Description:
Layout: E1 2-9, H1 13-22, E2 26-27, E3 32-34, E4 39-46, E5 49-56, H2 62-70, E6 73-81, H3 84-93, E7 97-104, E8 112-118, E9 122-128
Parallel strand pairs: 1-5, 6-9
Antiparallel strand pairs: 1-6, 2-4, 3-4, 4-5, 7-8, 8-9
The protein binds nickel (II) ion.
Amino acid sequence: xxxxxxxxxxxxxxxxxxxxxxxxxxxxxxxxxxxxxxxxxxxxxxxxxxxxxxxxxxxxxxxxxxxxxxxxxxxxxxxxxxxxxxxxxxxxxxxxxxxxxxxxxxxxxxxxxxxxxxxxxxxxxxxxxxxxxx
Length: 134
Ligand code: NI
């Protein structure tokens, strides 16, 4: 499966974006506040590599819990798939636990995305279809 992006949990998305710019990344689009998931999201690109920065919108954000555990760090790899429902079912049958069923992700151009986890692998995100051209 092709890697779509690497997801980083960060405490402060604006200062993280400034630092990643120094590493050669440029913002793909302005940061996006996802009220439903209580996260700020920003995608940045460096050549073929795309990262997703996620910071909490509030203390009740799932990212807050994660940041308290691991600090600023990469925590998921997102793979592009053609049929997310089938792919997720196959991973579930292979021992993965579904964390978040596929749903429309406004920050990813309306593509459907979902999360699974495995004790030997960690968190895996699946996204359906190719990224829109940037
Ligand atoms: Ni992601």
